[in-house]
Amino acid sequence: MFAVQAFLLALLIGWWPTPRALYPPFLRAQAEPLLGAATRDALTLRPAEPSLESADTVMEAREEGLPKPRWRAELSFLRLGWWPTAVLAALVLATPMSGRRRAIALLAGFLWINAYVLMRLFAEVAYADYEALRPGAESVGVVHALLRSGAEILEANVVLVAVVLLAWVALARPAQGLDTRSLRRLLPAR
Q1: pTM of the model
Q2: Residue 108: predicted pLDDT
Q3: Helix (H) or strand (E) holding 67
Q4: Residue 10 in contact with residue 86, Cβ under 8 Å?
Q5: Cα gap 73→26, rounded to integer Å
Q6: In what order do the strands lie in the sheet with 71-75?
């Protein structure tokens, strides 16, 4: 029953139009000054053109005096941050706990997911800057390998799932309140 409740809550929260529409601009406003401090160029995060169906945000680094950006990335903040936040919120709401503990877990979970998204964006900016500043040396050196590996690891869906589940376990402590008797009946006895 818990899994069904959490799944339905995730869908309801994830498709809730008002917070869903507010999340990308909120994250752009939060991330742009932080990411801009990490690069030597002017970094902008802006809404994507409607023709980009899978992206809601465009991230560009521009050097002064150049008409074209040095690099450009099309991102979906809904996929990167909103859906993981919705799933974590659903897991917390479906877990039996006091109202105060639930509110704290929801706030901490929101901060946890945003910290992951910012870390992922920092990795992408560092890797894109490194490649753009060193043309022709794409696959050379330890720094390049570390930046590329870090960006690719943080982009993996399995890492995102692990971030959400670790946040839920750390914040909601589900083993304390979940009734696992029905699950135990499904497992073979030892």
Answers
A1: 0.78
A2: 92
A3: none
A4: yes
A5: 18
A6: 42-47, 57-62, 71-75
**Domain residue spans of the chain:** 2-179
Three-state DSSP class for residue 57: strand
Contacts of 190 (CB under 8 A, 6+ apart): none
Q: What angle do CA 52, 57, 60 make, to 5 degrees?
A: 105
Please check whether residue 88 is in contact with residue 168, taking contact to mean a CB–CB distance below 8 angstroms.
Answer: yes
Are the C-beta atoms of residues 163 and 85 closer than 8 Å to each other?
no
User: What are the angstrom distances between the C-alpha of 152 and each of 102, 120, 131?
Assistant: 33, 9, 14
Question: 55: which 2 tokens?
Answer: 């992206």
Q: What is the pLDDT of residues 144-158, one digit of tens each?
A: 677 777 778 877 788
Q: Is 141 left (phi over 0), alpha (psi -120 to 50) or beta?
A: left
pLDDT digits (tens, 9 = 90+) for 87-138: 999 989 888 888 898 899 999 999 999 999 998 888 888 888 777 776 665 5
Indicate the residue type of 147. L
